[in-house]
User: Fold these one by one.
Assistant:
Number 1:
Amino acid sequence: MPLINTVESVAAAAALFPVQAASHIVLFRRYGGSPMYIHLLPAALLHAFVWLLAVAWRSGGMPNAAQTIAGVSLIGFLCLSYAQVFSLTIRGFSLRILVDIHERGPLTVEQIMAGYSEGRGLDWMFEKRLAGLESVGMIRRGEGSTIALRPLGLCAGLMGLWTKRLLNMGPGG
Amino acid sequence: MTAITVAIGIAGWAVFLLVHLIVWRLLPPSGKNVATLAMAACAGYGVAAFGAGLHDVSWGSHAPVSAPVFLFLAVLYFHFYFGVDRSVSVRTLGALARSPKHCLTLAELENAYPKEEMIHRRLGIMVEYGWIVETDGRFDCSGKGRLLARIARIGRRIYGLDATG
């Protein structure tokens, strides 16, 4: 296993990251939609495909096991890191508060709550979260504004509670 | 050799999780932050690399594979951890999971997870990070906060979003 080829494989994966980011932005702007993260997978696959072509061209053949594992791992790392940045941009709670303060500050707590997201308010944010949970089948909205957990939501809720207990964390949120 | 380098990356991740568990059970809430988590991750990979060195596997020979494997597993866990710690949705699911018959009205959910608590926690975190400053009950952006807010607004334009948050 030539060491320099594995390093080049990782460097190529990093250098080609703009392919993933750009293709995701194009897909998101063109098709938008729900769930929000649906376009990340084709963008990551495109990144991996272009990387494969680049490494094959550079190596004169298909990448070996070490190159493949290293390159694919780095692409996965970049995809998940990008997903975090994307998530913060479109629905980051703290970041939105920060932007509100930047645009209209200084603000009191009451002004922050009432004016959250350019005046939409916290009820809007919470309703958006509930709509998201309903769209992925985690909750069911019933009569009299009741909210019931579905099995998938129960699993996710319990996993969160157990993790917080195991790691001695606060209630979170 | 490839299997060994992958195993070093996975071992580093396992050590990180163990360090993270031990440290988190000992630390007070104020110490449980991104910086401490990142240090635990670095410590995990460092221990694995040190162990590999003791078996004559040099860092240079395994790092091109072990580091990306470790980074991928670490960021996968970070997603999970910060989802559990910060997500409004996960907190909501937890409140529902604890309730009788796993069902609450909106008013009951508001009692279990008050909006004031949501805001105060986030403001506390942002003050701790130095993004905002509090003066006489009013919050304003620091220089760092203003820069971050501008970047967020650029991101909103890039994605063509009407509303964020």
Note: The mean pLDDT of chain A is 91.
Number 2:
Amino acid sequence: MLEIKNLHKTFGGGKPALDGVSFSVGRGEVFGLLGHNGAGKSTALGIMLGMVRPDSGDVTIGGISVRENRSQALAKVGAIFESPCFYSYLSAWMNLKVLAGYSGYWDEDKAREIVELVGLSERIDSKVSTYSHGMRQRLALAQALLPQPELLLLDEPTDGLDPEGIHEFRRFIVRLRDQLGVTILFNSHLLSEVEQVCGRVAIIRQGKLVFEGDSKSVYSGEPRYQIEVDDWRRTSEIIEAGGGAALSEGRFTLPESLRICDLVSALVGAGIEISAVGERRRTLEELYLEVAEARDG
Amino acid sequence: MTALDGRMPGGTRGFLRQLYFELAKMFGRRRTHIGFGVFVLLELIFALLFKRERSVEWVQGMIERRASRAGPLRFLFDLDYYYSALTMGHMILGVAVVLLGGLFLALVAGDIVSKEEEDGTLRMVLSRPVSRGRLLAIKYSACGVFTCALIGFAALSSLVTGMIFWRPDGGFFITSRDLELTAFHKFGPGLWRYLIAVPFLALSMFVVTSLAFLFSCLRMKPATATILTLALLFIDIILKRMEPLQDIKHVFITSRMSTWQLLLARDIDWWLLIQNFSILGLICAVSFFAGWSVFSRRDFKS
């Protein structure tokens, strides 16, 4: 459905924003594009939408090149940006009409259906200036769904939403995939967020693709733990004696042969006081470092 | 179901629908309407100022002086007849358009692209399957409609103001120092000339709109686009007024913009009119294509 081919982009002669990024997203897939702010995610999204011109490489949507035939390629694409902006002095309904007008498509019944779906029916005739951030985000979703998209590009869509809004948004994304078979590219800097909705992920760091694969495989390898004890020195000796590795204050890994409950028993037996212990998920930063270390050998 | 239901047609009909939405956006802003209101206010103020005794003497003296230059025919003139709604409406229109027309056109056209970029709505638009060329064509056309609407309104309201304060069925006296033009028309032909000249005034003012549009397409703040346009026009006016440049004053943009008044002359110099409007048209075309050329090469990151 979406194919990114060897994208290169440098702004104003500085460091490359994208350096040979390639990945593909299959039809009906929810794909996560991960990376810190400034990693190159938004540039990649800009190129997908034809808003940024790549120095080299191309993006095809449904087999149509965005560079060569942008209008046709984007005919069935919806997009949501971080902090979506609307014509605040117009009603939400008029905003939808204006934006749909650029797509060359407007179906009043369908639009009403979508407005109902995103839960804005009661306030659709109000000016957008009276909308909360969450309502604007829902309006953004409505405008993205208007062209009945086969591909949805979401750039940090949950940014600024309250926890309830984030939860609701995730459920909606899953529904879109399951019921309508929409292909979704989810752009985010939050590993935990992407993990909950995406089947596959790609990670961009400093304009380079450092990982592409199943979202579960992001967490492959030895499980990591975090422990709070009264004597870290003795604890680390016991961990290392069991074949594990004490990483830093309170953090360690265990070999597959050693279960966490066995370690806890050993520590209690040794008279070490444990106040908390649990599995610890890697942050995006740690993942970056691991990938970089692995690449450097 | 509304007329907009279903897949929108491409080509001209699709373009007109998109233009309609662009105008809805433009006229949805309070700022767009302010120009119309301020025009009426300014015209009323001018009318009251022109009603002062000294102003009346000045205008009547001017009519008298110009009439006396007409030689033996001066005895045919009824000076009171020419101190009329058409004469004063035209005078008020001239001052109002110079003072406000340029400002409001530069404001609205200066906003047309750069304000959308500043507000973040441009990325929402650019994520749609519409080409940048078509988008600019829609916006430029909307600017054209606004220019016609504003200038048409100003011309009409000046005339109505003139009719409220002066003799409504009087003749039409025109004088222009720049064009070395003086003309006297009876009411009927005068009104006709006035109405014919208005679209040409709008075309002249479209140069201001086009320049502001060009700057709006560049990477700059909306206010900068407006200020640059006005600065360019002021520089043009200052240069045109400089003594050493009097022999070439006709080449300046604002000189060419004032040639719409040739339509009010007794004998219209069509050749000069066509020549000047061709150059003004060229300036508009170059502004649009230069704006398009820059805009189409720009990157818009979300």
Note: The first helix of chain B runs from residue 11 to 28.
